[in-house]
Amino acid sequence: MKIEMIIMSCFPKPSSVLPISIFFLVSCFFSHPSLSFVARNPEVVALIAIKDSLDDPHGALNNWDEFSVDPCSWSMITCNSDNLVTTFGAPSQSLSGSLSWMIANLTNLKQVLLQNNNISGHIPKEIGYLPNLQTLDLSNNKLSGQIPVSLGFLKRLQYLRLNNNTLSGAVPLPLASLPQLTFLDLSFNNLSGPVPTFPTKTFNILGNPLICGVHSSERCSGLFLATPLSLSINSSSGRMKSRKLAVALGVSIASVAILVAALGFLLWRKSKKDNQSILNVTDIQEEDLVRLGNLRSFVFKELQHATDNFSSKNILGMGGFGNVYLGKLGDGTMVAVKRLKDLTGTTGISQFRTELEMISLAVHRNLLHIIGYCATPNERLLVYPYMSNGSVASRLRGKPALDWNTRKRIAIGAARGLLYLHEQCDPKIIHRDVKAANVLLDDFCEAVVGDFGLAKLLDHAESHVTTAVRGTVGHIAPEYLSTGQSSEKTDVFGFGILLLELVTGMRALEFGKSLNQKGAMLEWVKKMQQEKRIELLVDRALGISYDGIEVGEMLQVALLCTQYLPAHRPKMSEVVRMLEGDGLAEKWAASHDYNDSKSHAVVALGNDHLGTAAAIVDDDDYDAQFMELSGPR
User: Fold this and answer.
1) Domain range spanning residue 25?
2) Which of 137, 342, 433, 451 is catalytic?
C-alpha cells in the first residue's frame, strides 16, 4: 500500500503518457527516502558480527567501526592492495565468547590467527568454505565439539593448529588429502577413533587419551611425527630394542631441548640488546623527508621516552592508520604522537607523506598544525600539539555537555578552517573526511580541523579528483560514494552532517536509528524543520538552554550543505557568512524557489503532451534533475 501511494503521488492524472510514466515510476522509486539505502561493505558486516560474538576485555577491537567504508584501517586486520581483508590476527588478546560463522564471508582470508585466547564453542564449519585460507591457528583456546569435516575442503591450507582445546570425535579423513598441508597439530584434545596417515612434514597427535592412552602408548611415543608411529613388538628381544630406542630417543630429545633452550636464551639476549640499541639504530632519518620546511625532526628515542615507551596507558585514540599517544617532551610540552602502522605496504607511507605535506601547506588557527615528525626505516611518527578537550565526537558524548554557545563557536571555527583549505590555499586542499571525530578542541574549546591523512591537493582549475572511496558512512557525500569523485563540495556535505551532530548530540546514523528513521535522517530533519518542531531534534543534554532561532538557522545551513547535487551546495565562504548571520535568508529562499519550480516541472512532465516533455528535455538543467530524482548510480 505504501509503495502504491508513492507511485500514485508521481502520477496525479491517469492520462499520463506511458513512456513518461515508466520514467517517473523508476525515478520516484529510487528517489523516495524510505526506499533508498546505502549498501554496506560485506566484509565490514562480517567482521562486526565476529566482534559481537566475542568478548573483548582489553579493547583490542575497539576501533572496529560498523559505519566504516572498509575495515583496512582496523587493528588486527590486514588488507591487500585492493582493500580486501587477507588476515585476521588477534592472538593472546584474552578474547572469549564464540567464533561467528560469518567469518565465511571474508572470502579473501589467507590467515586466521586466534591462538592463546579463551574462545569457546564449536569451530564453525563455514571456515571450510574459505577458498584462499592458508593458515588457521585456533590453538590454546576452549573450543569443543568435533573438527569440522569441511576443513578438508581447504585445498590451499598449509598450516593448521587446533592443539590444546577440548575437541572430540574422530579426526576427519579428508584432512589427510589436503595437497599443501605441511604442518598439523591436533595434540592435547579429546580426539578418538582411527588416525589417518598424514603426508605432512610435521604432525602431532600427543595428549589425546583415547588415541594415546595406556594401551597405545607406543603409538604416540614421538613428539612430532611425519606419520603415526605403529610398533607391534612382542618378543623379549623386541622389548630390549624398544628400551634402547626409548633411551636413545630420550637422549636425543634432551639434547635438542638443551640446544633449543640455549638458542632461545641467545635470541632473548639479542632481542634485549636490540631493544636497548634501537634508539640509536632507528634514529637514522630518511634524507628525502628531512627537507620538509621548518618542521622539527625528532629522534625516535625522544618520542619513545616522551610516551613512556608508547605505553597503552597513554593512548589517546586508535586512528585509521595507527594509535595516537599522549607525550611529554623534555621541555615539558604536552604533545600527541601519532605512530603509524602498515609500514610494510605503501598505504602507511603514503598517508604519512600526505599528512606532512598538507599540514605544512595549511597554516591557520582553525587547522591542526604539526610540530614535527620522525621518519626512520622502521618507524613513521607525527607530533602534534596536545588538544586537552579531545574531539568534538568525544565531547558530544561526554560530561559535562557542551553548551549551545560553545557548539556554535565550534561550527564557525571548523567552517573557517575548511574555508582556508578550499579558497585560500594554492593549490586548494580537499579534506575528504570531515566529521566530528576529526575536529579537535583546544584548551578554550576552539575548533581545530585535523587528520589530513585522506586529504588531496587540487588545482583551482580542476573541479574534482577521482579516488577509491574512504571515510565513514553517513558522512560521505552521495556523489563520492557512487562515483569516487570528490571535490570541495564533498567537504561541504560532511560539514553539514557535522552541524546536525552539533545540534542533536548524536552520530549521523545513530540519529536515524533513535527515531526509527534509518537511512532517512535528512528527510526527517527537513520535516521537523518545516513543521517548526526543532525541539525534537535538539540534544536533550542542552535542556532548554539554547536559542531556538539560532538552532533553526544552523539546521537551515546544514540542509543547504547536504543537498543532493554538489552544485546546489554553498561554498564554505558562504557557509561562514550564513553561520555568522549574513545571507542565510536569501540563500534559503533561493533554494526553495528552485525546489518549487522543479516540482512544477515534474507535474508538467507527467501531465502534458510529448511536445512539452521535449521542451523540458532540451533544458540544460534536465540532466541534473534526472540525477537528483534517480538517486546515486
Assistant:
1) 2-36+604-630
2) 433
